[in-house]
Design a protein that fits this description.
Two copies of one chain form a homodimer. Chain A is α/β, with parallel strands linked by helices and 389 residues long. Chain A is globular, with a radius of gyration of 22 Å. The first copy, chain A, starts with a helix and ends in a 5-residue tail after the last helix. At the A-B interface, helix 1, helix 3, helix 4, helix 5 and helix 6 of A face helix 1, helix 3, helix 4, helix 5 and helix 6 of B.
């Protein structure tokens, strides 16, 4: 015991080195707290802080006004009939899959779906069929393929898929498909349609009904300026009673949420950041314009080009950078040279070791910061251009 | 949209009224952050903060040293071969149940089990048989009854239960059964044994192996001085590969954890508070002594008596207070008088409206604070004694 105490002293003093850097990691950009949320963090950081006046349901707490947020503001925001908070987007997807599927059932995902969608299906025991993408360089998901795949599943298994999912946008290329059309196709076959908006809800305007979604999933820590882990899950009145079915033994407890989900700081920061989120989605066009400017700029470096559908419609982008890969082969730091050079210029968030391609996000960076990042890539290229000869 | 923005401004300025009160809610007392954790809250409150250097597994992150904490310190602390963090104790229980049970299987719980244990079983589709308690006033769970109930389940269903669970202590009376003995009995029938330590892990010394537990569940926000939501889940090498089985498609992702769980502030506060937690469990005897002093003291008020096994072995206690109920019948505020009177004395955390019985915790209160709380109950009794005549 005394030894464990001694060895654990280091955990007392953990600092986040990246705080002073421009962080290009797409995971991180949309989760930075709003000023309003940051201001109250200390007040609500203890354990179960929001539960002081809980009557048994997190989403019905009146003080702080969780009920108003979850039952009034959140559905309006998502364009759904009802909504809840979850422990994250993946937990929301699992709840839907666990509700709709039996072991051995088939579901249909876009092939650009996040790993956590596949893992959630696997945890449920569902088989996943995927809608193919168009391959390099666009990796586009054709919404019309949902019809082909649904027919194919029907032919192969005798049943329609229990759920169709579209990642909107996907987390690799920032691609959008025509969700409205995909949703319409699914509904023609009576297949419920889930929109995974982990990278859109909180960044841009998303309306589940207008996009024909039966379920909308979002991520608080990824895109809603909230402290993790927290997600949002909206649905229609058609699925409300099924998805949020209550326990037989404890009449007020919702089974898929195990009675309650993201209690504490995550829900309070989600609420505190909500006005900021509503404001920032109005400036989405500027964010897209910034991303396009950045991609155009660094495409001037020989060989560098963005993948995914162009011009980009999202701040998250995937870039092929064969020139940095060539440099890495001749650099003594190998693949890590790029990370080191960026870091010396105050930039982080590119996956360590990657030089051939990587993803990054310019979300909420100022134009000066974006210029600094672009300049950094140019400087690094120019510094090592000689190695290419 | 503009209307939604206008109506949402209120969420910017949410304050926790209870911060300045002595909070007797058992939920809240063990989740108060340590000084070390509080100091770093601002640095790590953004979204996914701990994931800056993630290679794909939360529990393998080296910077901050999550890997060392989860894979070395946590198993040592829990007395298990391996451990992970989860989104909470309930999510840990669900993961175990979901791993071991098929729909229709039977599991055995103590009848004092937390509602979330029952809800987790119901979500899995498992039938729950309970070990009875001794009823009023002790509500004791007899560990020997595990054998009877396992035999009974075998007789009724033809199969042994897939899991036995003991709540250690339960969340109503703070009762402990002989876990070691219950675990031994379960093992004689080859029934895996889960110890729900949501109210013990982080408060007192718990060693899974010594208590014959195959699974140990704990709660970060309830008892480990961490920001919610977060839990811990330990198991033996026998169950490690089953419980933490990996995805077939994504080889490093653990299915029951959906690839990753409580990312962000919860894990970093759990780590930062760990040295404090190790120190405080050494003072557990003092906490129990304080709770006994308090129960003895307020038992001097006519009719007031603690339920559960006495003398208490835990800071969480259930008290029968018929005298306050009698007063409430004659008081113009009815059941709310008690809450109001306590509040005016700087005390919160008794469930609003309750006067006949309620639970409370004295955990980590100073002796002065405990005396203040006891005095408050005496004062309130004396103030309204006249109403009883």
């Amino acid at each position: 015991m005394e030894e464990l105490i001694l060895q654990s002293q280091k955990f007392k003093d953990l600092h986040r080195e990246t705080a002073k850097y421009i962080n290009l990691n797409p995971l991180q950009r949309g989760g930075i707290l709003s000023d309003a949320a940051r201001k109250i963090v200390n007040e609500w950081a203890d354990g179960y802080s929001v539960c002081d006046y809980c009557g048994g349901c997190l989403d019905l707490i009146k003080k702080p006004p969780v009920e108003e947020f979850v039952h009034d503001k959140l559905p309006k925001f998502l364009g759904t009939d009802t909504a809840r908070v979850t422990n994250g987007a993946r937990e929301g997807k699992f709840a839907v899959l666990h509700t709709l599927c039996e072991k051995g059932d088939t579901v249909l995902f876009d092939s650009n779906a996040h790993y956590s969608s596949f893992v959630a299906a696997e945890r449920v025991g569902a088989e996943v069929v995927t809608v193919p993408n168009s391959g390099h360089p666009k990796f586009r998901i054709d919404e019309d393929s949902y019809a082909d795949k649904i027919e194919e599943i029907k032919k192969d298994t005798g049943k329609y898929p229990k759920l169709a999912l579209l990642t909107y946008p996907d987390g690799n290329y920032g691609n959008f498909s025509d969700a409205k059309k995909a949703g319409k196709i699914c509904h023609e076959y009576d297949v419920p349609f889930l929109l995974n908006g982990a990278y859109s809800v909180g960044r841009m305007h998303i309306n589940g009904k207008k996009l024909n979604a039966d379920f909308v999933v979002g991520s608080g820590h990824k895109s809603m300026a909230a402290s993790g882990p927290i997600g949002v899950l909206g649905t229609t009145s058609e699925y409300e009673d099924i998805l949020f079915r209550k326990s037989a033994k404890y009449k007020i407890k919702e089974l898929e949420l195990l009675g309650c989900t993201s209690r504490g700081l995550p829900i309070i920061t989600l609420m505190a950041s909500f006005p900021h989120v509503l404001e920032r989605i109005k400036r989405w066009d500027t964010e897209v314009a910034n991303a396009r400017w950045f991609l155009n700029k660094i495409s001037e470096i020989p060989g560098i080009k963005p993948l995914g559908v162009q011009p980009t419609e999202h701040d998250l982008n995937f870039i092929e950078t064969p020139v940095f890969y060539e440099i890495s082969k001749r650099h003594k730091k190998r693949g890590y040279f790029l990370q080191k050079e960026l870091k010396s210029r105050g930039i982080m968030g590119i996956k360590p070791g990657l030089t051939k391609f990587f993803k990054l996000s310019t979300y909420l960076l100022t134009t000066d910061e974006i210029r600094l990042v672009a300049d950094a890539f140019f400087e690094i290229y120019e510094k090592y251009e000689g190695l290419l000869k």
